[in-house]
Sequence to fold (323 residues):
Amino acid sequence: MPSVTQRPLRSRRSNLAVPGSSLKMIDKARGLGADQVFLDIEDAVAPVAKPEARKNIVSALNEGGWGDTIRTVRVNDWTTQWTYSDVVEVVEGAGANLDAIMLPKVQSAEQVVALDMLLTQIEKSTGLEVGRIGIEAQIENALGLTNVNAIAAASQRVETIIFGPADFMASINMKSLVVGEQPQGYDVGDAYHHILMSILMAARAYDKQAIDGPYLQIKDIEGFRRVAGRSAALGFDGKWVLHPGQLVPANEVYSPRQSDYDHAENILDAYDHFTSEAGGKKGAVMLGDEMIDEASRKMAMVISAKGRAAAMTRQQKWETPGA
Ligand code: GLV
Ligand code: MG
Fold:
């Protein structure tokens, strides 16, 4: 079991959104191969359907069949009347079969702390391991972004910081018709760069994963790849998937390329060897045409961790000289 302070690095390249009100969609989600599924009680569920969605989610989690998929439930945000019941019903009913709670529209560290305290109480009263269930914090408005560093640092439970572009665009009055793309007809540079980088910095500062939100044009796979490619290039770990058609592209875009993965593992092996007594205790050394040193090892660690989390295997192995 992971300790409260050392949370496991779990691959979250694809985060499949599933409305908790649809038993059919929940069933289908089981076999699709997403790294994570989140069962929604928030914006994909009509207010009158929320009580039923909670029940569906509890049974679906307890029925099992999710394999290695990370199981998350998105509750309603703290400004509504639903949050506490969402959390209590889902965690009391299926806490042992749940990995994380996603909290949308987070605006302050206090909102994360409130969820942390409620989870702790439920865990204690139901005999669950205290601190195991993670928190995923969605940043969806200006206040949330302003406080993103404090939000990331608010609890050991926080595993991800997620960008919610649809709500975010609406909240700051951004003029755009397609979520995640540039405001149409205006040259504003990359309108999303500051938001994505702020989320990424907070995530990296506190050892969390940075997750990009939905791309709503579900038939436009090229658009999905373009928008996903931007956050992946910056260093994001994954993206929401609203439709099975977006799943394979997400897993591809957020995985290292095979050659980059092989290269990273080879750097780690080579650096390990050359810095050792047997390898000559060298701190900077040539690997093929490339000079590698401690900073190269750190860069390689990033690619290696993403590849290992995605269960990649090395195809071209560096051989230790004389081995
Ligand atoms: C997701 O929740 C979004 O608002 O984009
Ligand atoms: Mg939203």
In short: The radius of gyration is 21 Å. The beta strands are 14-19, 36-40, 70-74, 100-103, 134-139, 158-163, 209-212, 238-241, 285-287, 290-292.
